[in-house]
């Protein structure tokens, strides 16, 4: 072989080796897969065609149905709460709503009855997720992910209130309502094909939707790096309207409904043509996102599409909202009730998950929850689990990539198999906590008296999983087994209490001003006086036959301002008639809450704030540091001062000894000197007259 040929041969061999290595490297899946979390708004379990059971649904969801075949379809998927804000906070924080004290929308207000006719009132609950929360977005940022949000936010007392997405770990955020902006008249003003129409119809007759365009913008701008997109749709939340006249007329004809006369809330069935059109629009917009992922080349993985290295989770923030005050939107049948209830209709939601390593076309009866998304997405992306971070959900990746039908693979952080879920909704007319253990579900009704015909505890068997097969039994939650199975009922109720106690859950209170007579209502305490000394506030109160067991200071840092928000801090019960609290720095106004052993709440001052009115109007202002006392008649004041004397005079000799005085006050500083001030005749005893006159 001529020597001059040898270098050419060597160069050729090196070229082959380099090409081979390059091909091998190019074919290697990127280490950090993408994640898209699609959270719809108020989409019911029976609104999606592939979940259709019993009565056929009139709605069409071809794109969502097709996506269901690409991954795992959960028949028993749940939201963390039956309303949107607590579910959103739970998904992003990984904390159960009860633990986070974020159990309903809005929040951040002093507890108050809706009216004097209300038997019970909601407890205080947080208005928002704390800004210092280590959110899922922050955790992914720390692992090199670009994080994006588009659509609905609402993890605070208002869509625009603090904190916003940029405050809690999102690099990109857009919140335009797009075609979901309100219409002046939903029977006119439909979108057209005109170039100057902001909602101009596309070639398929769907209105332009800026929210969907925002999601696509994020994907286009960040497809060359690991990304997490949290796409929170405004659909299918009210207002119930569509800008597509074509789709409205399509469903009006199919349902035989005049759009000008939609069914009332008392009319069962999925008969609202506006709502049906909205569901189809949702399906179309989501389909555009799916299509983009399927057709767009992955810059980080030549020769492959984005969808090949992207996990997609599709679900809803809560069950379907069945209707407003005058109109029915949808029907969750066979499930009981809907949004704003912890029954199945309020918490069971569509849940579809697909992505690398997840088998296609699998349907499972394993129970899953939106709380599982945080730990599961950490696992999907190889993001370390944050140290000392509480996560109430399960990592579903072993289940998804193993056998999605094997419930033994749904494990908690301690490696135990999960068989229990808890929901806590102590609000509105529902006032419920529920627990599901295996096939059974227990419902605890806090005000079963007001809800006529409702038992305090209800037990339902949803399924029968014996024999290795899951058989539907009572999805309707129609047959209460509590009386037939008292031991199981008691056991599940006890476990519910244990779970809620561990999370320090807040419970609803009885209203002492209720016009509907309540047991022990006359025994609610009376708050007598209020004194401020520097940063410390002191109250005296009188127990009227029922022991006070808890005291809270409800305070605000921005009283009278927009987005006025109230917080709760414990106060200290010094004894059976005194309570003290430290006023947090920056406080502008505050209330005192006393809760007795019968769960009555006494507020001082009485809360009278309403919507569009500041709760600070009737609160104690920190600008006024003078001692105050509730206005009472002279007779009442005299009676109030005799009550401590009667209680402390244990030997009933009409005199207080020094020991009786100390015992009554549960001991404390300077009691000898204070006793001498009452004992004006220095005989070592305090008569009733001396005590009452001194108290004046």
The neighbouring-strand order within the major sheet is 5-4-6-1-7-8-2-9
Instruction: State the helix count.
Output: 16
Number of strands: 27
What number is the mean pLDDT?
90
**Hey, roughly how much beta strand do the residues contain?**
15-25%
General form = elongated
Structural class: alpha+beta
In whole angstroms, how far apart are the ends? 122 Å
Largest sheet, in brief, is: 8 strands, mixed
Q: Output the radius of gyration.
A: 31 Å
- Indicate the percent of residues in helices: 10-25%
Low-confidence stretches: 1-23, 626-640
Q: What keywords describe this structure?
A:
five-stranded antiparallel sheet; disordered N terminus; 24% helix; 27 strands; 696 residues
């Amino acid at each position: 072989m001529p020597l001059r040929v040898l270098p050419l041969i060597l160069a050729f061999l090196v070229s082959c080796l380099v090409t081979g290595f390059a091909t091998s490297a190019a074919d290697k899946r990127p280490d950090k897969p993408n994640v898209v979390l699609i959270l719809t708004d108020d989409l019911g379990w029976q609104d999606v065609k592939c979940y259709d059971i019993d009565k056929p649904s009139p709605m069409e969801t071809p794109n969502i149905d097709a996506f269901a075949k690409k991954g795992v379809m959960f028949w028993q998927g749940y939201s963390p709460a039956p309303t949107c804000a607590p579910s959103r906070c739970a998904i992003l924080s990984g904390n159960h709503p009860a633990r986070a004290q974020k159990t309903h929308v809005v929040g951040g207000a002093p507890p108050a009855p809706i009216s004097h006719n209300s038997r019970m009132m909601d407890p205080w609950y947080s208005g928002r997720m704390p800004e210092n929360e280590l959110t899922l977005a922050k955790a992914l940022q720390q692992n090199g992910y670009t994080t994006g949000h588009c659509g609905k936010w609402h993890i605070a007392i208002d869509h625009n209130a603090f904190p916003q997405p940029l405050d809690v770990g999102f690099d990109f955020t857009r919140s335009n309502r797009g075609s979901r902006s309100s219409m002046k008249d939903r029977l006119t003003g439909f979108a057209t094909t005109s170039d100057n129409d902001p909602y101009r119809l596309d070639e398929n007759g769907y209105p332009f939707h800026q929210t969907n365009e925002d999601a696509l913008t994020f994907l286009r701008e960040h497809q060359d790096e690991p990304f997490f997109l949290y796409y929170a749709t405004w659909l299918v939340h009210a207002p119930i309207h569509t800008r597509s006249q074509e789709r409205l007329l399509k469903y009006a004809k199919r349902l035989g409904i005049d759009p000008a006369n939609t069914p009332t809330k008392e009319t069962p069935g999925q008969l609202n043509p506006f709502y049906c059109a909205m569901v189809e629009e949702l399906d179309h917009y989501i389909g555009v996102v799916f299509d983009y992922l399927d057709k767009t080349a992955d810059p980080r993985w030549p020769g492959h599409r984005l969808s090949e290295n992207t996990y997609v989770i599709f679900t809803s923030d809560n069950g379907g909202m069945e209707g407003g005050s005058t109109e029915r939107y949808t029907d969750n049948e066979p499930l009981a009730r809907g949004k704003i209830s912890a029954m199945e209709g309020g918490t069971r939601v569509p849940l579809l998950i697909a992505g690398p390593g997840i088998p296609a076309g699998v349907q499972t009866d394993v129970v899953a929850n939106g709380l599982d998304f945080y730990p599961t997405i950490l696992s999907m992306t190889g993001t370390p689990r944050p140290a000392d971070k509480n996560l109430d959900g399960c990592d579903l990746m072993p289940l998804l990539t193993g056998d999605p039908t094997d419930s033994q693979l749904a494990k908690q952080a301690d490696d135990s198999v999960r068989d229990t879920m808890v929901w806590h909704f102590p609000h509105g007319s529902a006032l419920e906590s529920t627990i599901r253990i295996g096939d059974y579900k227990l419902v605890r009704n806090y005000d079963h008296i007001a809800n006529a015909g409702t038992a305090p505890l209800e037990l339902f068997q949803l399924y029968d999983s014996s024999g290795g097969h899951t058989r539907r039994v009572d999805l309707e939650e129609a047959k209460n087994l509590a009386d037939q199975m008292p031991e199981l009922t008691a056991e599940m109720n006890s476990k519910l209490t244990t779970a809620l106690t561990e999370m320090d859950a807040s419970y609803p209170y009885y209203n002492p001003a209720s016009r509907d007579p309540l047991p022990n209502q006359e025994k609610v305490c009376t708050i007598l006086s209020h004194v401020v000394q520097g940063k410390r506030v002191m109250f005296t109160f009188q127990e009227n036959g029922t022991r006070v067991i808890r005291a809270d200071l409800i305070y605000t840092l921005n009283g009278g301002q927009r987005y006025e928000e109230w917080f709760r801090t414990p106060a200290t019960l010094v004894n059976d008639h005194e309570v003290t609290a430290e006023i947090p720095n920056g406080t502008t106004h505050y209330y005192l809450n006393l809760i007795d052993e019968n769960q009555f709440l006494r507020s001082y001052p009485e809360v009278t704030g309403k919507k569009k009115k500041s709760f600070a109007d009737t609160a104690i202002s920190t600008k006024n540091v003078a001692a105050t006392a509730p206005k009472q008649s002279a007779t009442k004041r005299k009676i109030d001062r005799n009550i401590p004397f009667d209680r402390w005079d244990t030997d009933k000799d009409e005199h207080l000894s020094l020991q009786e005085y100390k015992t009554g006050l549960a001991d404390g500083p300077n009691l000898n000197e204070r006793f001498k001030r009452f004992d004006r005749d220095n005989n070592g005893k305090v008569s009733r007259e001396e005590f009452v006159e001194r108290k004046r």
